[in-house]
Amino acid sequence: MQLKNIIFLSFISISTFLSAQKSETLIPKDAVTVFSINNINLLQKISIDELISYEFMEEIHQELFDGSTSGKTLKDAGLDFDQKFNIFYGKLDKCELSGFTFGITNKEQMFSVFDDFEVTPYPNLNGAQVYQSFFNNLIVKDGAALLIRVEPSMELIDQVTDSIWYARGNENPYDYFEEVNEDVLNEEIYDENTQIENSFPDATLDPNEKNYNELRDSVQLVLQREQLDKILIQLFVQNDNLIHLDPRFEAQLTHPVEGIFYMDNARNIDKSSGLWYFQTVLPSLYKNIQELYAGNLILGDLLLKDKSVDFAIEVLYGDKLGSIYTEMNSSQFDKQVLKYIPESSTAYFTYNINLRKAYEKAFEVIMPLLEQEKNAQIAMNVLTIELLNEFVNKDALFGTYKGSMFGSFNGIKKIKTKKIEFFYDEETFEYGEKEAEAEEDMPIFTVGFSIERNDIPEKVLKHLGRLTSKVKNMGNYWCFENAIFDSAPLYMINKNGLFIFTNDQDLALNHALGYGSKSINNVKFKNAKKSGFMYANLDVKTTLNRFPKDLLSPKQNEMIESLRGKSGSLELRSSKTTKEKTSLNLTYSFSGIEQSGKHLLDLINTIYVVSK
Amino acid sequence: MDELTIHDDGSGTLKYAINLSSSRVKVNSILALDSLDGKKVPSIEEIKTKVSLFKKTLSLQNGISNISISENYTDFIFKFECDFTSIDLLQEGLRKTFSITLNDKSILASDFSWLFWDSKVLERSVPSIATNKLNGITENDLSLLKTGTYTSITRFDRGVERFENPLSKLSKDKKALMLRTDTYSLKEKHSLLENTIYLIPN
Fold first, then answer.
1. Do A487 and B153 touch (CB under 8 A)?
2. Strands lying side by side in the sheet with B195-199
3. To 10 degrees, what angle do helices A154-167 and A212-232 make?
4. What does R_g of chain A's alpha carbons equal in angstroms?
5. In this complex, do B25 and A484 lie within 8 Å of one another by their Cβ atoms?
6. End-to-end CA distance of chain A
7. Nearest residue, CB atoms, A442 vs list B25, B60, B100
8. How does DSSP assign A23-83, residue by residue?
9. H helical segments located in A187-337
10. Which of B24, B26, B61 sits opposite A486 (nearest CB)?
11. Residue A240 φ/ψ, nearest 5 degrees
């Protein structure tokens, strides 16, 4: 009898274990980027308010900022700390999806945080319960939950709305505004029009019929529901998820580390809207591009150490792309570059590739793909490339630009500029203008390229100097006045097998042959030299906190903002490139008393912003 | 800088100049961006179109003539000048023009009276459209305001008897007043440029 009980209890335990849903099984197969945090104990003390302030939560955080999270931690939200916490993002042809999945131990506590969700009746999803709020959807099944947001693409919403709008016999909804704008310069008509309310016109005189914006909202809602249905049926009826789709993701999940990263670049390429021309006009070439990108995947492990977070990344690719990368990265490190990075530099990188070998391999791999195309334009392009390949002096071309380069950020310095001053006669107050010296803050950058044929840029600069007085030979360097923003000089140094562009007057004037003993120390020198094709070092506090955002694109600013206010340093190293993969290692070292879980999130957030 | 000339009959000339030449690097770097702080950065062509719309719209307003606008996109100096037949028409014309150019109907309803003239007394203040813009400047850019200056000059056909703003300076012939301040102080205290000027009776 006792044996029977033991067998029965064991059966129950095993069944419960087998039937319990794991949070990672709720990741939709359409997710192309996933962060999975294994050890979420690290996040126990992090407040939810802090967590949802990260960019990777941006799609889902609106309704959480309503006081329900105030003063609460993840622990108070009923989360199961024995399960993984997975953040995902995916872009499909018709929509974008984002969200996270997690385990739950206490549903009641969870709904004290997610207090805006209401139960929504949904067709049979094998026991999964759906809750919805204004923006998001929360699906709970057997101790795991999926919080998901689905956004149909604007293009699709517009297409469907327009199609319905015009099929109903309506006219262009934007004509209304054009008419108003044409009259705006006529004073009398403008006065009359100011009485008109700035609202969208109704479709018809019938108030029950939707106007354009109302119709668009309805279309968006229907498309949202359609996409959500598809994803939920895949997950809960067909049991089809990312783990089933990609065994490499499944394998990555088993790594005994704090977190893992997965990004399927091959599927990113599939969904890239920039390739629509190839997809529609040159489908066979598009297929070849897809084949070239097959197997392109980035996998990463996040390891938390005492004073650092390590991010070990493997970039995997197919044979063809691998053969190009291998040739490209088979380059000798150019030690000369390190002479031009000062010890005081707060951020620098070296990039070491052999462009000639990469070109030759790419020519060998890509040209046969292009030659197969039976398209007149492609055929002409192939002929042009073939002829250029025969006639262009590749020794001169790749001798001038070998491919290796370096860059450094040397802080903010005052630079001399000119300004126009207004001055006033003290008796009559009549004013005049005069040119005067001015000083403005400017970030100091240096970018240099390895070069064998330094006679070629010298020739170019010599002739430019004859064309304009702005370009001057100053002996050890060349100066191009007002080259930067029409205000500041650009210096060019053509020495030591390097061609360097900089706005650092001190480098041009006093260190044209290198910084000597003032260049980066031996440890940093060796780290850069030992690294493969790429090395980067960045002091977060002294670089990013004072980096002028005026100089960067919105995307770059988003990345900088994700790290602004943080301390510590970032170091990126790469390994030797093989035909299958290249390994990279990003180390975020920190000091101070901040929780290590927070640093982990900081790094995840930065990677999310970069990979989005 | 602004320079307002008022003749005895209430007509006059308004001159306005913006000099950003000491921030050429910053202005150029901003113009090189697509957007900043979530707002679209206009191209030089778009700015030129706006300036042209402003000029064209103002030229249609009653009582305003001889409009001239010079644009220097190398040093970023912009100068505006127009004649007016009365202070009221000048203010009304500018109000409508700003509203149309900036596509902002709220300007029509805003307090746009910053000048009052009754042939003996001139009252000057700063229009709310300008003070609102100053209030919108972010903390990061406040230090730059300290290096900027604002000069306001008022000229008359006859002499000034007295004025209320002690920061004002009277010209040798007593027919002009000048007020100077830095742009940061102006942001902090909009009343710095306010003045009531009493003229010597005819």
1. no
2. B115-117, B121-124, B195-199, B160-163
3. 130
4. 30
5. yes
6. 59
7. B25
8. GGGGS-TT--EEEEES-GGGGTTSBHHHHTTSGGGTTT-GGGTTTTTTT-BGGGGTB-TTS
9. 187-193, 212-232, 242-245, 247-253, 265-270, 276-281, 283-293, 319-328
10. B24
11. -105, 115
N- to C-terminal Cα distance for chain B?
A: 29
Question: What is the residue-level pLDDT of chain B in tens, covering all 202 positions?
Answer: 999 999 999 999 999 999 999 888 888 888 877 777 777 889 999 999 999 999 999 999 999 999 999 999 988 999 999 999 999 999 999 999 988 988 887 777 777 788 999 989 999 987 777 777 777 777 767 777 888 888 999 999 999 999 999 999 999 999 999 999 988 888 888 888 899 999 998 7
State the pTM of this model: 0.69
Which helix (H) or strand (E) segment is A449 a member of?
strand A431-450
Give residue A114's pLDDT. 75
How large is the greatest C-alpha to C-alpha distance in chain A, in angstroms? 115
Q: Given CB atoms, is B44 within the 8 Å cutoff of chain A?
A: no
Neighbours of A47 (CB within 10 A): 16
CA dihedral B150, B155, B159, B163 (to 10 degrees): -30
Helix (H) or strand (E) holding A463: helix A455-467
The first and second tokens of residue A40, run together, are 């979420």
Partner residue opposite B172 with nearest CB, options A190, A427, A441: A427
3-state helix, strand, coil in chain B (%, to 5): 35, 35, 30
pLDDT grade, residue A16 (50/70/90)?
very low
| Three-class DSSP category at A585 | strand
How many residue pairs bridge chain A and chain B with CB atoms within 8 Å of each other? 85
Of B36, B172, B173, the CB nearest to A550: B36
This model of the complex carries an ipTM of 0.87
Q: Is B151 touching A (CB cutoff 8 A)? A: yes
Note which residues in 95-124 of chain B have CB less than 8 A from chain A.
96, 100, 105, 108
- Residues sharing a CB contact under 8 Å with residue A276, sequence separation 6 or more, in sequence order: none
Residue A551 contacts B, CB cutoff 8 Å: yes
Question: For chain B, which residues make up each domain, given as ranges?
Answer: 2-199
Tokens 């709008």, residue located: A165
Using the Cβ of A419 and the Cβ atoms of chain B, whether some distance falls under 8 Å is answered with yes
List A residues 121-150 in contact with B (Cβ-Cβ < 8 A): none
Token output for B176: 């002009």
Query: Is the distance from CB of A36 to CB of A253 less than 8 angstroms?
Result: yes
- pLDDT digit string (tens) for A147-205? 998 999 888 899 999 999 888 888 777 654 444 444 444 444 444 444 444 444 545 55
Cβ–Cβ below 8 Å for A487 and B172:
no
| β-bridge partners, A501 | A447, A492
B57 CB near a chain A CB, below 8 Å?
A: yes
Q: Which residue of B has its CA nearest to A197?
A: B105
- Contacts A416 to B, Cβ<8 Å: none
Rounded to whole angstroms, what are the CA distances from A507 to A324, A339, A439, A478, A485? Answer: 36, 11, 19, 12, 20
A306 to chain B, closest Cα gap in Å = 35
